[in-house]
Task: structure prediction
Amino acid sequence: MTEARKSHEPSNGMLKRKAVWDSLRLEHCRMRDGHLPEHRHREHVILMALSDGCKGEFRTESGSGLSGTQRRGAVCVVPSGLAHTATLCGNSEHLALYLDPALVRRAASESRLASGFEILEKYPRRDNVIKSVAFALLGELDSEGLSGRLYAESLANVLAIHLLRYYTAAGIKPEKFKGGLPGTKLRQVMAYITENYANDIRLDELAQVAGMSNFHFAREFKRTTGTSPHQYLINFRIERAKKLLGDERLPLIEVGLRSGFSHQSHFTRLFRKFTGTTPHSYRLSLQS
Result:
């Protein structure tokens, strides 16, 4: 994760937590009653309510928007550059996702979609894909980037494709591959991971090895292996750590670093998540 921080802005009664990745950033906001002046963002903005009961109004320069009582899970999709303002009559909590338009354009191009597509302003009562991505990214913010860059990049791709499918005028659908990754390409990708697992591998690196776009590669890798590139990488690192834990001379922090985990706390939490025990307990079990 490039950045994670908290900031207080007493004048607006606002508490923000932020995280930034390539092509995507997240804000977790808690706000009190008041007026949010008109502003705009260069990214596509996706807002999701985390609380119920706050009365207010949200308006854009197009004249559209919504007013009434906030409901948990409600979504606002605001296209890049569209000015918007909000008035709140109570406490409110929400997540804001900011998606780089360049990523969406790249997804459209690599999926052979028409160049004239336009992301639409929409206000669905709920969207399960956006909800899943938003909470997954919130989990990354809470854990200070536990799952790594590859995970966040994969979620950004999911979000870009989802916007193209359900938030454009034509409701266009990306081209689909069939059959998964060919055996040769899959072996090349796995060999690359074996050689570079200790690095902060990017999704586009793996896609380049496979000779595919990021968007197609992530989907076809999972179709072939039954797991996402991110999950495969974490599993590989965990298996590497298990082998190293058999060497009693290596301190646990060294095992974590050699296995590709940049922080000891991340290593311990992920090892426990995937194995049900801590690295220390696992080492003791090998000795018994």
Observations:
- The CA atoms of residues 192 and 206 lie 8 Å apart.
